[in-house]
Design goal:
By secondary structure, the protein is α/β, with parallel strands linked by helices. It has 3 domains: about 280 residues, Metallo-dependent phosphatases (Purple Acid Phosphatase, chain A, domain 2); about 80 residues, no CATH class; about 70 residues, no CATH class. Helix 1 packs parallel to helix 2. The protein binds manganese (II) ion. The site of manganese (II) ion (MN) has 5 residues, from loops.
Length: about 450
C-alpha cells in the first residue's frame, strides 16, 4: 500500500495531458467515544455504537478511499468486551471493503502507563486500523512511513493519489513544542516529499484552537498553528466536541454523539473531503463539507419558578409548563434525553421544596432519561437593600419603562404589566441567566399578558 504510483506528465499520451483529473474522497471524523455508558444507560452505549455504524456505512456507500479518526475513538482507557466486539465487528466491514482507517490517540484512548499498550494499539496490531505516532531521538522528532509489518509509523500514503497523511497523538501540554518540531521536520523533508510525488498533505492532531470551547483550557492559540500553514494542506482535528474551521485549512468535525449536554445544540458530524490532484494544476484543490449525522435527541427546557408561593403551586404550575412542551417530548421518533433547568427565585421555604415530585410529573412524557437541574436562588438572597438611592433609581426606571410602554400602541393597553416585565427582563440579564432561559421566560410572559389583554 505504501509507495507512490505517481503519474508524470511525460508518461501521458499527448492531448491527455490536461484532462486527467484524479479525485480522492476521504472522511474525517473524531470523538466517537465508543463504549460511553452515559447516565449508566445501555441505550446510550448503543447510541454511540450506532453513531460509529452510521459513519462506517456512509464511508463505504460514498466510495470513500480512506477514513480518518482524529482521536477519542474510545471513551475509556479500559473498555469492556461488548465495546471491543462492536469496534472490531464494525471495523471489519471497512477491512473487507479495502478502506484503510487511519487513527491517532486522543486523551481518552491513552494507555494507563506512558509506555503502555492501549486498546487502539491492539486494533492496530490486529490490522483493523493504522495507528500513527512519532518518535523522538537525539536529532529531534522522527516521522517515518507507516510500516505494515511493524505496524508503526507517523505517516501513510493513499497509493497513487499523491495524498500523504501525517498523524500525531494527543500530547497534552507538549502540543505547542511538538507542533514547532513537526514544522521544522516538514520543512526539512519538503524536497523529498515532492520527489516522492506527494501533492496533498493532511496532518491529524487531537487538539484544538484555544477559545473554541471555553471549557477546554491550555490549548494552542490560533497563532501557534501558523508554523504549519505552508507545510500542510489540511489539518484534521479532534478533541473539541463542536464543529469549527480555522484559518481556511484547519477543520474540526465535533463529536458524533452527545458526550456533554453543552454540545447538544451543535450540528455535528464528519467532513467529507474531496481532493483533486490534477496533473496539470500547480496546487491540488479540495473541498470539505460538514455532513450532519443523526443522533439521540436532547431536549433542554427552562422553567422559571418566580412567583410560585408553595410546593403545591409549584407542582401545579410545573405540570402546566410540561403540558405546554408536550409536543417537544413527542415530536421526535426516538425518546429524548431531557434536561430541565429550574431558574429564578424560589419564593417559599426551601425545606418544603420537593424535587422528587417534579421528576415524577415528567415521567408521564416518557423521555429516555430526565435530569432536573436546580439553578434557583432563594428569594431572600436577592432582596434589594432598602436603600434610598437604589429605590429612587428603581422607581425612576419603572416610570421610564411605563412611559415607553404607554407610547407604543402594542403595549399601551397593559403598560403597567409591561413596565414590570421590562424591569424583570433587565434583572434576569443582570443575573447572568442564559439567553434561552430569558427568551423562554419572556415568551411565557408575552403570552400571559397578551391573553389577559384579550380577555
Ligand atoms: Mn473527546
Amino acid at each position: 500500500m505504501i509507495g507512490m504510483a505517481h503519474v508524470h506528465d511525460k508518461d501521458l499520451p499527448k492531448g491527455l495531458k490536461k484532462t486527467i483529473i484524479m479525485r480522492t474522497r476521504l472522511i474525517h471524523a473524531a470523538d466517537i467515544h465508543l463504549g460511553y455508558l452515559q447516565y449508566g444507560l445501555d441505550e446510550r452505549a448503543i447510541d454511540f455504537t450506532r453513531a460509529l455504524e452510521h459513519l462506517i456505512t456512509e464511508t463505504i456507500q460514498t466510495d470513500c478511499q480512506c477514513l480518518l479518526i482524529a482521536g477519542d475513538f474510545f471513551h475509556n482507557r479500559s473498555i469492556d468486551s461488548q465495546t471491543l466486539y462492536s469496534a472490531t465487528k464494525l471495523l471489519e466491514r471497512l477491512r473487507e471493503a479495502g478502506i484503510p482507517v487511519v487513527v491517532i490517540e486522543g486523551n481518552h484512548d491513552k494507555a494507563y502507563r506512558s509506555e503502555g499498550y492501549s486498546w487502539l494499539s491492539y486494533l492496530n496490531q490486529m490490522e483493523y486500523i493504522r495507528l500513527l505516532s512519532f518518535n523522538f531521538s537525539d536529532e529531534g522528532i522522527q516521522l517515518s512511513p507507516f510500516d505494515d509489518k511493524t505496524r508503526s509509523g507517523s505517516y501513510t500514503d493513499i497509493a497513487g493519489t499523491g495524498i500523504r497523511i501525517y498523524g500525531l497523538p494527543w500530547v497534552g501540554a507538549q502540543t505547542r513544542n511538538i507542533m514547532s518540531a513537526v514544522s521544522d521536520y516538514l520543512r526539512k523533508v519538503r524536497a523529498d516529499e515532492e520527489r516522492q510525488g506527494v501533492r496533498f498533505r493532511i496532518l491529524m492532531m487531537h487538539t484544538g484552537v484555544d477559545g473554541e470551547d471555553p471549557r477546554l483550557k491550555g490549548l494552542p492559540a490560533g497563532n501557534d498553528f501558523r508554523v504549519l500553514k505552508d507545510l500542510v494542506n489540511y489539518i484534521a482535528l479532534g478533541h473539541v466536541h463542536k464543529p469549527y474551521t480555522y484559518d481556511g485549512y484547519i477543520y474540526n468535525p465535533g463529536s458524533l454523539e452527545t458526550v456533554n449536554i453543552e454540545e447538544a445544540k451543535e450540528k455535528r458530524g464528519y467532513y467529507q473531503i474531496d481532493v483533486q490532484t490534477d496533473t496539470a494544476a500547480a496546487a491540488p484543490e479540495y473541498s470539505a463539507e460538514l455532513i450532519i449525522t443523526p443522533k439521540r435527541p436532547f431536549l433542554q427546557l427552562s422553567y422559571i419558578v418566580d412567583g410560585v408561593q408553595s410546593q403545591e403551586e409549584l407542582l401545579e404550575d410545573f405540570t402546566r409548563f410540561l403540558r405546554r412542551h408536550k409536543q417537544e417530548f413527542a415530536q421526535t421518533e426516538e425518546k429524548p434525553v431531557a434536561h430541565i433547568y429550574l431558574r429564578g427565585n424560589l419564593a417559599f421555604d426551601r425545606t418544603a421544596f420537593n424535587m422528587k415530585q417534579l421528576y415524577e410529573s415528567v415521567t408521564i412524557y416518557k423521555p429516555l432519561h430526565i435530569i432536573i437541574h436546580d439553578n434557583t436562588d432563594s428569594a431572600e438572597a436577592i432582596d434589594l437593600p432598602e436603600d434610598d438611592t437604589r429605590s429612587s433609581i428603581q422607581s425612576m426606571e419603572k416610570d421610564i419603562f411605563y412611559q415607553m410602554a404607554l407610547s407604543d400602541a402594542r403595549f399601551a393597553n397593559a403598560a403597567e404589566q409591561w413596565s414590570q416585565i421590562m424591569q424583570n427582563l433587565k434583572q434576569h440579564s443582570l443575573n447572568g441567566d442564559p439567553a434561552e432561559a430569558i427568551c423562554d421566560w419572556f415568551i411565557e410572559e408575552y403570552q400571559r399578558v397578551g391573553q389577559s389583554d384579550q380577555g
